Amino acid sequence: MNELQSKNTNTDSSTDMQSSCENNFTAKPDDLLEIEKKIQYNINKINEVSHKLEILFIQQKQYKDKVRIKETFNELDLCLKKQDICKDNFFKQKVLLNEQKILRTKFRVLREDIHSINLKISETSKLKKKLDEYEKQINTVSLSINQIQSTKKNYLDQISLLKNLRIKHKNDIDALKENAIKSLVSSDTSLLFGQYNDLSEELNIELNDIYNTKIEELLNQLELQNIKDKKANEYKYKLKKNKTELLDALEPLGENNKILQEKKKSLLEIEKIGQANNEKLSKISHENYDQVLHKNLIEQYKTIKIEYQLVLELEHNIKNIPSYKEELTFLQDQDVIYTEQKIGIIHKLPQK
Q1: Domain membership of residue 129 as a residue range
Q2: Does one domain contain both 333 and 267?
């Protein structure tokens, strides 16, 4: 940008000078002084640009000698990036392998726990079957007890009926005896009454014996039913106790079953994580990380990077050669113009 401004300024100055010379038939000493200043400024610029070009040509030669550094740096940078990736994969692999090791330990512990719980709850179905048997037995015993209670009631009702009949028959015989006493009218009938009384007493004794025998039999049967009732209730109590103990035994097994399901769920989660880790490992397991090589590459990279920056600087600088050449040509052309103007001004100065 400065070069273009310089060119434009010099061009404008040249144009002004030509216009001034053309419009004036005589020149002044100040005009000569002004053009000499411009010539000197232009010479300084030519020297400055020439010096820059000389330096750039030297840098251009240096660049040709060092351009290989750029290629070497790019190759080294590519190798280092690959090793960086390998290093990253190496540590990822290390983390994943360690996680897999932990997961395998957890998996083994869970499998052992599940096996242990399975052994504990393996009796569950058998215990439930036994519980059903207890329930059926209790129902059967309850029906038996109800039947015994009914039989006992029947015996009690029969005993009560026989006792009432015994009393009724005795009362009937006593009533007959009273009626017979009232109807006595002669010694003959008195003798007949004696015979009747003896007969009624015998009948009464026989009836009492019959009733007593039947009542005794019923009481014996009732006692047997009481014994059955007692044993049945004792057996029912034992069954209920066994049922309660079985329910108590089944309760922790139910809790164990819940724990088992949770552990199986955890086992599935570990399997999923392990499978995902294996997939990740399959993608990076082929990467080889060489720690010594990586360290050497970093050192080489640090060393060559300085030279690489210098090469880039040289590359950037030599790109300016064409523009400096163009500027130098322009300045040289200006020098010719200024020289011609100076000669013109000298000829037009007043003669002393």
Answers
A1: 120-284
A2: no
CA distance 185 to 191: 11
Report the CATH number that the domain containing residue 191 is assigned in CATH.
1.10.287.1700
| Residues 108 and 181 both lie in one domain | no
Q: Confidence class of residue 11 from pLDDT cuts 50, 70 and 90?
A: very low
Residue 173 and residue 262 share a domain = yes
Q: Model's pTM, two decimal places?
A: 0.42
Same domain, 103 and 158: no
User: Around Cβ 278, how many Cβ atoms within 10 Å?
Assistant: 12
Domain count, the chain: 2
| Rounded Cα gap, residues 63 and 315, in angstroms | 7
Q: Is the confidence at residue 15, as pLDDT, over 70?
A: no
CA distance 291 to 44: 58
Amino acid at 32: L
CB 173 within 8 A of CB 203: yes
Angstrom distance (rounded) from CA 345 to CA 36: 11
Judge whether 263 and 130 are in contact, CB under 8 Å.
no
- How is residue 81 written in tokens? 């990036």
Closest by CA to 26, choosing from 347, 345, 348, 340, is 348
Could you tell me if 125 and 245 lie in one domain?
yes
H or E element: which one contains 184? none
Q: What is the pLDDT of residues 182-203, one digit of tens each?
A: 665 444 555 555 555 666 676 7
